[in-house]
């Protein structure tokens, strides 16, 4: 699963895990020791935050490789490198030196990474993201700027437009309500089932 902050990844991961009997793997957000500090001072905490996420995600990838079950993950390691770290560099919060060090580490880890069989991208507009971030009420997310979300959306679109690691499926969540509308969830499930019939 891939998508911007507040796109609805965790919710959909939970629903698809139950639907298909998959093992869900979630992003380490609530126990991240840097996240709250990062949103207060992005420049000071950008590098340790990205290293923490990279290490956490890499360990998650290793766990997934060892798992005998079919797994669904709520954010990929690729997003850390190609979306979030890149955006911090482009915005001046992460120095080029720190970014180069970070990206070199990511490339070393990449030799042990197997891309997902299917990448599901949840595309969402800024108003949709703001509404869903507000609804979940995480205090440290209250300081996220619209500009930051816009920059992330732009980086996501560029990454998705050039994604070649494997199968890709895009859902525009502005026009879907898979929480309250069973038909919308059914549409997603049906498309995934059709895609997997083509995979195997």
Overview of the structural elements:
With 200 residues, this protein is mainly α. The protein has one domain (2-174): Rossmann fold (3-Layer(aba) Sandwich), CATH 3.40.50. Helices cover 58% and strands 10% of the residues. The protein is built from eight helices and five strands; from the N terminus they run βαβααβααβααβα. The strands form two sheets. A three-stranded parallel β-sheet has the order 1-4-5, sandwiched between helices. A two-stranded parallel sheet has the order 2-3. α3 (42-66) packs parallel to α5 and α4 packs antiparallel against α5 (96-110). The longest helix has 25 residues, at 42-66.
Features:
200 residues; mainly alpha; 8 helices; Rossmann fold; two-stranded parallel sheet
Please compute the radius of gyration using only Cα atoms: 17 Å
Structural class of the secondary elements?
mainly alpha
Helix coverage percent of residues? 55-70%
CATH class: Alpha Beta
Principal-axis shape equals: globular
Report the order of strands and helices: EHEHHEHHEHHEH
Topology:
Elements: E1 2-3, H1 9-20, E2 23-25, H2 35-40, H3 42-66, E3 71-73, H4 77-90, H5 96-110, E4 118-123, H6 126-136, H7 146-161, E5 167-172, H8 182-199
Parallel strand pairs: 1-4, 2-3, 4-5
Structure, briefly:
The protein is mainly alpha-helical and 200 residues long.
């Amino acid at each position: 699963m891939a998508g911007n902050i507040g796109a609805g990844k965790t919710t959909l991961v939970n629903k698809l895990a139950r639907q298909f009997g998959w093992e869900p793997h979630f992003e380490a957000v609530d126990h991240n020791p840097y996240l709250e500090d990062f949103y207060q001072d992005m420049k000071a905490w950008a590098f340790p935050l990205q290293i923490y996420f990279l290490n956490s995600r890499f360990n998650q990838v290793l766990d997934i490789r060892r798992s005998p079950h079919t797994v669904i993950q709520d954010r990929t390691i690729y997003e850390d490198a190609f979306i979030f770290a890149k955006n911090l560099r482009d915005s001046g919060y992460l120095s080029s030196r720190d970014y180069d060090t970070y990206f070199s580490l990511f490339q070393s880890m990449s030799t042990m990474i197997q891309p997902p069989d299917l990448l599901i991208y949840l595309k969402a507009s800024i108003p949709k993201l703001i509404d869903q971030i507000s609804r979940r009420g995480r205090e440290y997310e209250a300081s996220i700027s619209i500009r930051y979300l816009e920059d992330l959306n732009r980086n996501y679109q560029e990454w998705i437009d050039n994604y070649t690691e494997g199968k890709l499926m895009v859902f525009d969540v502005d026009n879907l309500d898979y929480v309250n509308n069973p038909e919308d969830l059914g549409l997603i499930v049906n498309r995934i089932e059709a895609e997997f019939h083509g995979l195997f």
